[in-house]
Each structure stands twice: as C-alpha cells, then as structure tokens.
Design brief:
Chain lengths: 161, 262
C-alpha cells in the first residue's frame, strides 16, 4: 500500500492504494464517493467518467496512484455552492435526460467537459463527444436536448428520429 | 489484476533504469494495458508510468520539416497540435472517444501494434521514424505482424517523426462497438511517390498495398485504383466481417481516401 493524495472536488483527499487500485475504486471505496459508477469495467461505457486536471477520463481505466497530486472532480462536486443542481444537471432533469440514472453521472461529467471545450456545440458535436457514454434507457435524444439546453440553445429544434 | 509495483519516474533515464527489473513494463495511457491487466493477459512485476516524463511529451518540428511527436503525447494533444498535417490530426481526433483520447498515447498505440489500430497506418503511410531511447527505426522495419514490433524488452518510444505529405487522408470504416477500424486506409502523396497503408484487414497487421501505390504514383485519382483488389486470403475473418468483406473494404476505403485527399 502506498499513500496517495489528490484534490477531490476542491478538497484535499488522502488514502491508501495498491499499484493496481483503480481511481474509481479509490473514489468509491476509500473516499466513499459512490456517485461515480462502474458499468462495464472494460473502458466501454463511460459511467465512470470523472475530470482529472480538467479533462474527462474513465476512472475505471486509470490507477489511483496516477492521480497523485491531481485535481479530480466527480459528480458530487458538480452542484452549485448552495446545493442546487448546476446548469447541466438541471437541464438533464428538465429534459428527461435520464431514466434509470445509471449512466447519468458519466453523462453529466462528459457533457460538462464538452461545454468547457465547446460552449455552444451543435447536435452532431454533442453526439460525437458522447460516443463513449452508453445509455441503455433514453435512446440519447433527451440527453442531446439537455446538453443543447445547458449551452443556452433551443433544445426543441431537434426532431425525434 | 495480479499485484505489481508501481513507479512514476520524472526523467527518461529513471524510466529506463526502472524498466531493467525483470518483467517490468512501461505504462502509457493505460487504455489498452489496463484492460489487458484486468483480464490477466499481462502480469508485469512492475509498471513504470511514463506520464511524469515530460521530455517525451509534446510536439515540435525538426530542420527537415518533420513533425516530431513525443511518445507520451496523448491522442487529444495530437488532434489539436498538428494543423499542418490535417490527415494525422483527424486520425487522432477520431480514435475511440474523448476520454480515451485524453489518456491514450501515440507511443502506447505503436508499441501495442493492434491489427485494427489507427496510428500504425499513419506511421507506415507517412514513412515515419520511430525513435526509442536507444535507436531510430524506420516504420518499414518496425511493424512485424499482429501485436509484434521491432521493440526490445524495456525499450521506450520517445518520439515519432512524421514527414508531411503533399496530400493525405485516412479513411476509417469504424467498427461501432469497439470504435477501432474494421478496415482503415491511409494514403499519403509525396513529391517522390505515394504510400498506402492498410490497417484492420490483414492477419499480419498493418501493411503497404504496393500495387495501389504504383497505380497512384502516376495518376492520383480514385479511378486509378478502381480495378485493383487485394486477395481475401490472409485477411482477418471474425463476427464483424469475413475475409472477403474486408478485402472488398480495402478497395473501397482506398478509393474514398484518395478522393478525400483531393
Ligand atoms: C474504448 C476504446 C476505443 C479505442 N479506439 C481506438 C481506435 O479507434 N483506434 C485506435 O488506434 N486505438 C483505439 N483504442 C486504443 C487506444 O488508442 C490506446 O490508447 C492505445 O492503443 C494504447 O495507448 P496507451 O498510451 O493507452 O498505452 P498503454 O495501454 O499504456 O500500453 C500499451 C502497450 O504499450 C506499451 N507502451 C506504452 N507506452 C510506451 C512507450 N512510450 N514506449 C514503449 N512501450 C510503450 C505498454 O507497455 C503496453 O504494452 C481504443 C481504446 C479504447 C479503450
Ligand atoms: S465503467 Fe469505466 S468505462 Fe464502463
Ligand atoms: S438512464 Fe438508464 S442507462 Fe442511461
């Protein structure tokens, strides 16, 4: 076991990890932050997406020790300071961008990373960016609408296919 | 995963030394190696993370006008960092998904030499040079078949040097579940000839299609390769496509790549 420390959602976090401890295991089991989900554990589904130094990464495909000294943000760190949902989260609720909610933490983290890079993405850019986030419930349409809305664009203009 | 030691050196020298331990392996972005470790397909005694080795990250140009990409440079950094070689930027921008591109590295991709990976096609079609901590290897001598390369145990890809072609394009027929290439063709036209590299198709891994290269050298148009085909024998056959299907796609992707390269 090695001591590892990082900043998680703006606060210093410290714990123990083996070489093989995944970042997602460290977040969920060592820090108790169970908002980050494990869907596939094979780098395919994106349920485990978190931000490391501002970039979206799959926490099931990165070791905890690699995050030493890094700034990590998880779904628990997304709400506004007063506890209300942030703009992306609120848009997912308003546009029914979730059903069972299993994929939602990863979807929100990926969507937030997209909006950091591209503040007003087109529908095609949204679908392309979310390629690594799989949802078994919604058919994606309302997720795309939610991201359009979160970026201040008209969500109703995209037709259901 | 079996247990292993973990080291994160901050210089190339330290990394080379750390890799001298028996059964030690370098860790690039982990986007291939971590899934392999989970399946217990690899059991290293130690992983040496290259992420902290700044001297093998980043992009620059050499005196010969080549683009030099550090072996630890991520796909996302290449996608954003080589505007003078749009075909290479587009290839990097289309590997996997954004989270994979934020971790995965060019060195890891070329070291792994997956028969369906994208970078091997770019390196071979560009006539790139693979630079390691000990030597320089021409792309033509580097790829030795599926998952096989000229790299020795513990050798680290420090840089990849790409000559910039006059025209180029990578056409990828994506396998939607894995996001790898079912078949991908990279064409590159230089002043002194054309190079065509095919990935995803052959059981021998990435290869140059010399017949198409010869035809395109005198006439760089899709029509010039219209009548050409590769034999189905030796092509990969799996649940995603038969050898015949892949052989057919090689022709189609080549024509599309030439048309798009303009
Ligand atoms: C969902 C998903 C989709 C993907 N889609 C594509 C795709 O469309 N096209 C594509 O080409 N690839 C794809 N990949 C693979 C991806 O590009 C990987 O990043 C790449 O194959 C391996 O790079 P890495 O840096 O992650 O290497 P790692 O996984 O860390 O390492 C792979 C191997 O290379 C060795 N290694 C790593 N770095 C070096 C180095 N500098 N020198 C020597 N040896 C080294 C390691 O020891 C290991 O054997 C995908 C992966 C995933 C998970
Ligand atoms: S749990 Fe990480 S990608 Fe599915
Ligand atoms: S809401 Fe159920 S998987 Fe996306």
């Amino acid at each position: 076991m090695t001591k590892v420390s990082m900043t998680v959602n703006g606060e210093a976090a410290e714990g123990e990890a083996e070489g093989r401890t995944l970042l997602v295991e460290f977040l969920r089991e060592e820090l108790g932050l169970t908002g980050t989900h494990v869907g596939c554990d094979t780098s395919q589904c994106g349920a485990c997406v978190v931000h490391v130094d501002g970039r979206a990464v799959k926490a099931c495909t990165m070791f905890a020790l690699e995050a030493e000294g890094a700034e990590v943000r998880t779904i628990e760190g997304m709400a506004n300071a007063d506890g209300s949902l942030n703009v992306v989260q609120q848009a997912f609720q308003d546009h029914h961008g979730l059903q069972c909610g299993f994929c939602t933490p990863g979807m929100v983290m990926s969507a937030a990373a997209l909006l950091d890079e591209t503040p007003r993405p087109s529908e095609a850019e949204i679908r392309d960016y979310l390629e690594g986030n799989i949802c078994r419930c919604t058919g994606y349409h309302n997720i795309v609408k939610a991201v359009l809305a979160a970026s201040g664009q008209d969500a109703e203009r995209i037709a259901a296919e | 995963m079996y247990a292993f030691d973990f080291e994160k050196p901050t210089s190339l020298n330290e990394a080379v030394t750390a890799l001298q331990t028996e059964e030690a392996m370098p860790l690039g972005g982990g986007q291939t190696l971590i899934p392999s470790l989970k399946q217990r397909l690899a059991a290293p005694s130690k992983l040496v993370s290259l992420r902290g080795v700044d001297e093998i990250r980043g992009i620059c140009r050499d005196d010969a006008g080549r683009i030099c990409i550090g072996g630890g440079t991520t796909h996302a950094e290449v996608a954003a960092g080589v505007p003078e070689y749009p075909a290479l930027a587009a290839l990097a921008a289309n590997i996997g998904d954004p989270a994979v591109r934020n971790r995965g590295t060019i060195g890891g991709s070329l070291a792994n030499n997956d028969p369906s990976a994208c970078y091997p096609a770019a390196a071979l079609a560009s006539g790139a040079t693979i630079v390691t901590n000990t030597r320089e290897i021409a792309a033509d001598d580097y790829f030795e078949g599926m998952f096989m390369t000229a790299l020795e145990e513990g050798e680290i890809i420090t840089e990849v040097r790409f000559p910039v072609p006059e025209k180029a394009h990578y056409e990828k027929f994506e396998q939607p579940a894995s996001r790898f290439a079912l078949v991908g063709v990279f064409v590159a036209k230089f002043a002194d000839g054309v190079r065509v590299a095919v990935t995803g198709a052959s059981e021998e891994g990435v290869f140059r299609w010399s017949e198409a290269e010869a035809a395109l050298a005198s006439d760089f148009t899709p029509e010039a390769v219209q009548g050409l085909s590769v034999p189905a024998e030796g092509m990969i056959g799996d649940l995603h496509g038969s050898p015949e299907y892949r052989a057919h796609l090689v022709g189609v992707m080549t024509r599309r790549a030439v048309a798009a390269a303009g």
